[in-house]
Design goal:
seven-stranded antiparallel beta sheet; Double-stranded beta-helix; 43% strand
């Protein structure tokens, strides 16, 4: 049998995580280290591999119900090779160290089982209920496989060069960065959104670290259900900028 398909045979590597190609992740299991992967992400495997639904603790269940943020994971264990993918999205392996990583749960494909994650309120001093209000803060030492729609942009943040990005395009950032969420407004239009720009919530990053942005956006958050009533759309009232999220942190342990 001859075919150009033979150019896509298995990539040989002893690393725990290896990119088979830009949209397919190869995970090697040696019987000692497990991998937590997105439910349903397995496309193929070789060897004696077991897949179990990862137990969601009471704290995790509460965080998911309260914020809508969380990880639906399966535990991959045993000896062999597992291939993971999700809708042919681009995959990127990231080393998590002492700085930590904050990421939207929707973009996590897999992570080391030894990593710790909390659900946090991004802009806790304002009661914003729009897209990006809650994310995962991943800490410890290990690897995380992230997904993006298209090839991403990694933007450095320094004390003299801050970054602002659309909340729906941001995938992840260094946990050491200071983050604030705000609506796109101007001094002349503070009581209304900029309907002529089509832009909604944005995230502002200050400090030193990195921001990962993808070339794709979800439905603009101003079109989403945000609290109750028109006032909440502008940050006013009990569902608006009321400080109700202050200090919200939910943990996986």
């Amino acid at each position: 049998m001859q075919s150009p398909l033979f150019a896509y045979t298995e990539v040989q590597s002893d690393d725990h995580y290896t990119l088979q190609n830009g949209q397919l992740l190869r995970v090697r299991l040696d019987g000692n280290t497990d991998c937590l992967a997105r439910k349903g992400a397995m496309v193929a495997y070789q060897g004696m591999i077991e897949f179990d639904g990862e137990y969601r603790s009471q704290g995790q269940a509460y965080a998911r119900a309260r914020t809508g943020e969380g990880l639906d994971l399966m535990r991959c264990s045993g000896q062999g090779t597992v291939y993971l993918a999700n809708l042919a999205q681009h995959i990127h392996v990231v080393d998590v160290d002492h700085e930590g990583l904050t990421v939207d749960a929707a973009y996590v494909l897999a992570l080391d089982s030894g990593l710790h994650y909390d659900v946090i309120a991004v802009d806790s001093q304002f009661g914003i209920s729009g897209t990006g209000a809650y994310n995962l803060n991943i800490s410890g030492r290990g690897k995380v496989a992230l997904m993006t729609s298209g090839k991403p942009l990694l933007m450095p943040v320094t004390p003299d060069k801050y970054v602002s990005a659309d909340a729906d395009a941001v995938v992840a950032w260094s946990s050491s960065l200071r983050v604030q969420m705000q609506a796109q407004t101007s001094s002349s239009g503070v009581w209304r959104r900029r309907g002529n720009t089509g832009e909604g919530w944005e995230l502002n990053f200050v400090g030193e670290g990195y921001v990962l942005v993808q070339p794709s956006e979800l439905m603009p958050p101003q079109g989403a259900q945000v609290g109750q009533g028109l006032a909440a759309q502008y940050g006013f009232g009990q569902q608006g900028a009321h400080g109700q999220n202050q200090g919200n942190i939910f943990t996986n342990r």
